[in-house]
Amino acid sequence: MSGAARLDVTAHLEALRRYARVLTRNGSEADDLVQGALLRALEKRASFRDGADLRVWLMSILHNHHIDRLRSTSAATARETAWADLAPGFAPPAGEHAVRLEQLRAAVLTLPEDQREALHLVAIEGLSVAEAADVLSVPPGTVMSRVGRARAALRRWEDGGTARLSSIRLVGGADDAT
Amino acid sequence: MTRPEDGITETELDAFLTGQLEAGRRFAVADHLARHPDLAARAMSDLRLREGLHLVLSQVDGPPPPALRQAADTLARGLVRPPRWPLRAAAAAALIALGWASEALWSGFQEMRTMAELRPLAETALDARDAVELRRSLALTTVQVDAAQIAERLGLDLPTLPTEWQVRDVQVVATPQAPGLALVIDTPDMGEVMLLSFLQNDGGRISPLRAFDHRGSAVAVFEHGPTAFVLLDASAGVRAEVSREAERLLSRMN
Questions:
Q1: Which of A79, B127, B145, B152 has its Cα between 20 and 30 A from that of B111?
Q2: Domain carrying residue B43
Q3: Do B89 and B215 fall into the same domain?
Q4: Are residues A155 and B45, on separate chains, in Cβ contact within 8 Å?
Q5: Can you tell which superkingdom this protein's organism belongs to (chain B) (predicted)?
Q6: What pLDDT is recorded for position A115?
Q7: B98-155 pLDDT, tens per residue?
Q8: A48 — contact with chain B (CB < 8 Å)?
């Protein structure tokens, strides 16, 4: 029998939609982004190596497609500042901590883009640092430092309640003091 | 990021919390946390953050739009991994070489080139039949499946089968181009036959309908749009009969 095997793209659809939401912070725009990335992946399918990790390959294409779209639209900057008015496209938190969790999500989505990308890939999608580095096209050390900065910023946010993150974006090793 | 006085780094602590630190250093970090309550409390705070992140970023707000699912299916079809070609290609080449002389008796040189393209399709159908037979021989439970539903998922356009044809078995099988659908069918005229259908990636070059003998089976190959069909009668089938029935199927395409 021949060994042709279909790769399960659908199994990674949710992960792509999640990451697209972290990138765009808007549900419908995120799904458009995923749609475009899937088309681009089809065009670039020859670049997919047998044995490669399909999820990392798809995430990487999604990421690059997002960057290209940002470059091609002049509205990007305006959207960056106005995102809070939009629907991020995640299920609303439930339970007694719903309000706080909603604030946590807003805090994450307020992080600088490079930090929230790295944090999401490693903390939510469970990618290794090396895999995240592949997706983001940066050295592994850069991924680790971005994740570290994101964590430190969120730690500060937790310490300071709902204080805006924009004032504490640049944080370093000294932030680990409690 | 380094805290030399502590002997561990911020990066290591992050790697520890995300389970990405190697075992030796994991112990070192855990040991260090056990002796530094302030850092341990911060680590727990990070874990809380981690759990919170999972709660707020893991679930999107609804199922994917149909267009997204369709795009994922289309990509999956385009990403079919190549089959183990060296063996199959060698086998096909040998068969073509052996069958060349007899083939030439009933087809002209112009058509021989086409036969070189057709024979791998017949091989694929024989593989599919082997796959179905293997599953049957293992007596695996056949799940009740809806052939039309599978065909739709695979993007295949199936003909409406004659009412007197009884589908006995349905199986998704591998083909060199894309996942195919094998239907084992009981027919009044030919007995048990197999109809294999799959999407062609190469635009299809097997039109019009062709029938030929291949390794003791009568085979008809035809296409409708991007879907290719191979009708196979493995029980010493008669080529003309398979050809006629394939014509009949082709005329019943939706």
A1: B127
A2: 2-57
A3: yes
A4: yes
A5: Bacteria
A6: 96
A7: 333 333 333 333 333 367 777 778 888 888 887 777 777 665 555 556 778 788 878 8
A8: yes
Q: How far apart are CA B185 and CA B170, in angstroms?
A: 9
Task: State whether B52 and B128 are in the same domain.
Answer: no
Q: How many domains does chain B have?
A: 2
Other C-beta atoms lying within 10 Å of the C-beta of residue B24: 7
Domain count, chain A: 2
Q: Are residues A77 and A26 in the same domain?
A: yes
Residue of A nearest to B2 (CA): A173
Q: Are residues B141 and B196 in the same domain?
A: yes
**Interchain CB contact of A128 with B (< 8 Å):** yes
A34 in reach of chain B (CB within 8 A): yes
Which of A153, A176, A95, A7 is CA-nearest to residue B8? A176
Contact yes or no for A105 and B57 at CB 8 A? yes
Q: What is the pLDDT of residues A81-110, one digit of tens each?
A: 555 556 789 998 888 889 999 999 999 999
Nearest to B60 among A1, A21, A48 (CB): A21
Q: Which comes out higher in pLDDT, residue A96 or A79?
A: A96
- Packing angle of the helix pair B37-57, B10-17 (nearest 10 deg): 50
Interface pTM (ipTM) of the complex? 0.81
Residues A18 and A72 placed together within one structural domain of the fold: yes
Q: Write the CA distances from B174 to A3, B19, B123, B126, B205, integer angstroms.
A: 7, 38, 12, 11, 20
Q: Would you call B179 and A119 a contact, using CB atoms and an 8 Å cutoff?
A: no
Domain termination site, one of A90, A125, A157: A90
Asked whether residue A2 is assigned to any structural domain, the reply reads no
Q: How many CB pairs under 8 A join A and B?
A: 172
Q: Are residues A34 and A103 in the same domain?
A: no
In the stretch 26-65 of chain B, residues with CB closer than 8 A to chain A read 38-39, 41-42, 45-46, 49-50, 52-62, 64-65
Q: Which domain holds residue A111?
A: 92-178
Q: How many residues does chain B have?
A: 254
Confidence of residue B13 (pLDDT cuts 50, 70, 90): confident
